[in-house]
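Long-time lurker, first post. I've been practising inverse folding by hand and with some scripts of my own, and I keep getting stuck on stretches where the structure tokens seem ambiguous. Below is the full token string for one chain I'm working on. Before anyone asks, I'm not after the true native sequence, just a reasonable design that respects the backbone. If someone could post their per-position residues I'd love to compare against what I wrote down in my notebook.
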């Protein structure tokens, strides 16, 4: 009983490994690494560059997700600044779920979304996940084009899914 209790309160981010990588995009140098608790504040700043206030995920939810032992969050960092991130829920071995993918407005159209999705696909394939799913705002044309390029297909529509604007969401899925 004590062993189970200690495991419950042990480091919550050790379940899913990720080896830090140096990446280059258009002669810019980045580090792609597993998220750190301190990244939550920078995640908020990234969200503020691309979403109207209130941002979709408040700081307490962001912190909870980074610490979630059934999730993996990756941060793309340039000069100690998080410029993009993605999150994966990995609790169901049959299907990984992208909970978030955000790129700072100043860094969009550089291929960072492609980089993050390629990492997600490789990570999930290496661990024998069968599918990846996500939800996306039906009005987010850039995200829809990115997901289409990776083969995602609409599985269902969630009416008025987003609380801040009441837009519908497409739940999309791709087989790996």
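-- Answer (accepted) --
I ran through it position by position. Result:
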């Amino acid at each position: 009983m004590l062993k189970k209790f200690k495991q419950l309160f042990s480091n919550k981010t050790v379940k899913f490994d990720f080896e830090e990588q140096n990446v280059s995009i258009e002669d810019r140098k980045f580090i792609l690494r597993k998220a750190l608790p301190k990244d939550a504040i920078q995640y908020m700043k990234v969200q503020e560059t691309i979403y109207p206030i209130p941002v979709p995920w408040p700081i307490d939810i962001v912190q909870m997700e980074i610490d979630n032992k059934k999730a993996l969050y990756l941060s793309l960092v340039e000069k100690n600044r998080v410029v993009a991130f993605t999150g994966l829920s990995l609790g169901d071995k049959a299907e990984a779920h992208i909970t978030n993918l955000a790129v700072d407005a100043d860094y969009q159209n550089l291929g960072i979304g492609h980089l993050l999705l390629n990492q997600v696909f490789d990570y999930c394939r290496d661990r024998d996940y069968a599918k990846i799913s996500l939800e996306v705002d039906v009005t987010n044309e850039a995200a829809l084009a990115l997901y289409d390029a990776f083969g995602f297909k609409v599985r269902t529509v969630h009416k008025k899914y987003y609380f801040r604007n009441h837009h519908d969401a497409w739940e999309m899925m791709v087989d790996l």
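A couple of notes from the structure itself: The two ends are 39 Å apart (CA to CA). The first helix runs from residue 2 to 8. Happy to go over any region you disagree with.
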